[in-house]
Amino acid sequence: MEFRYLGNSGFKISEIIYGNWLTHASQVENDIATQCVQAALDAGITTFDTADAYANTAAEKVLGDALKGERRASLEIFTKVYWPTGPKGPNDVGLSRKHILESIDGSLQRLGSDYVDLYQAHRYDHETPLEETMQAFADVVRAGKALYIGVSEWDAEQLRNGHALAKQLGFQLISNQPQYSMLWRVIEKEVVPTSGELGISQIVWSPVAQGVLTGKYKPGAEAPAGSRAADEKGGANAIKSFMRDDVLTAVQQLQPIADELGLTMAQLAVAWVLQNPNVAGAIVGASRPEQVASNAAAAGVRLSSDVLGRIDEAVGDVAQTDPSLTVSPERRPV
C-alpha cells in the first residue's frame, strides 16, 4: 500500500480507501462485512469511509464493530453529514448547526470512537447560510471530535467560498469527495484546477463506475444475477446511467489494455483515477473479501502516457465531462 497527503496538510491516507456505501447493513450480511474490513486491513488499507446516511446510520455501526480492537491511531476514519437520517424530521437533514452538532455525536457513538479523522459535508446545503455551516465545523474541530474537515460533490465556486470561510475561522478545508472514473470526468475542467490552487485533494468514489468498468456487463445482455445492476435495494438505480449499450461497448475495448498490463479491469480503473495528481485516494467497496484484496493491488501502479492515451481513445465520447453535472439538491431531501 502507498500513502498520500490529503490536501495541504501533514495528514496521510492510504491510496486505496475502503468504503461501505450500498454494502454494510444493506447488500451484505454483517459477518461478510467484517471479513471485508479485515481483508482491507490485511491489504494495508488504513483509511475507511462511511456516512451517517448509509443504511440510515446502520453502516457506521457495522464499520465501528468491525474495527473494534484495532489501534485507533493507526486508522483514518471518515464519515459525513447532510442526507436525512433517523426519523427524517425537518432538522434531521442538511448542514444546519443543529444537525451537524447532533450528527457528529451520533456518528462517534456508532463508530465507537472519540473522534473521526475527517468529517465531510455530504453535499452543499443551499438552505443553510454557509457561514453557519462552517462555524459549526470549526466548533467540531475545536471540540476534538474531528481532526479535519472535507466536503463531497461541491462545485468549484462552493469550494472556493468554503475554503475562504474555513481559513477565516482557523481551520483547513482539505478534501472534496466527488464521483470520478474513466466514464465520469466532470471534475476535471473546474473542480480539479480550483482544488489544486486551494490545497484541496479529491477522495474519489465509484472509480470503477459502480462495477461497469469491470467489464462484466455486456452490451445487449441481461445483468448477471447477484450483480449491482440486478440489485433492487438501491444498486440498480445507482448504476443505471452507465448501463447503455454505447458505454458498455466502449468499456469492452479496455480489456486488451488491462490484459497487456497484467491487470484486471477493476485494477486498471482504480489505477487510472490515481494517476490524477489531485487525487489522494480512491474509495472501493466490496461484497466479498477477495474483491478488496484485488482492488488494493492497484495501489502504486503507474500508467504510461501511451496507456492513458489508449484509454481515452477507447472510451471516446461516452465519458461525461460537463462540469455542471456537479450539483447538490436545491432543496433539502426529505
Automatic annotation (TrEMBL):
GO MF annotation list: oxidoreductase activity
Pfam families the record matches: Aldo_ket_red (PF00248)
Signal sequence range: none
Keyword NADP on entry: yes
Keyword Oxidoreductase annotated: yes
UniProt entry keywords in alphabetical sequence: NADP, Oxidoreductase
GO cellular component: a single term: cytosol
Residue span, NADP-dependent oxidoreductase domain: 15-314
Similarity field: Belongs to the shaker potassium channel beta subunit family.
Protein name as it appears in the record: Aldo/keto reductase
Species this chain originates from: Leifsonia poae
